[in-house]
Amino acid sequence: MFDTRELGRRPGALKRVSRSVVAPKDLGIEVIGVREGATIELDLRLESVMEGVLVTGTARAPLTGECVRCLEPLERELEVDFQEMYSYPDADDRSREADTGDDAEEEDMLFLEADLFDLEPVLRDAVVLALPLQPVCREDCPGLCADCGARLADDPDHHHESADIRWAALQGLAETMRDGEKDNAPRERGDDSQEK
Prior knowledge:
By secondary structure, this protein is an alpha+beta fold. It contains five helices and nine strands.
């Protein structure tokens, strides 16, 4: 929770805050995210406006995950910017009087509670939306061998001599035909003259 009491309700009042916070649980997606308990560095700018407090900030957090191609562990640094408006509790009453008619917008509003605001939902949205959906250890990662699972980056010349089992019978027939052609090949003329 962050305190806005120093700002008061004076529009234009400004306060800058730098703080380190502990990452909450499940801050990420299946393959990459911020480990629970990791340190997130926040630089915030709190600005008092007529309706509430406008929070603009930057979060820096260490990411851990795995490459989606080769499954190797990877670590990255994420920096994400965000901005959110925290309305005064009585701003809801004023907006009802104005009757904007946009119920969805009212549901998405965040409010100050006793001059305090909780940044976690905003931080969670900003971080998760900034994560790569398909993280890779490097852009040209070749991944894993489809046959044996070997990491192709470790052995670039890795390959298998494999035939599709659906074609195995035809391959056997082709080899039989090649062997038969060798047996039936015409002999050279020099061989014929020696036999006479």
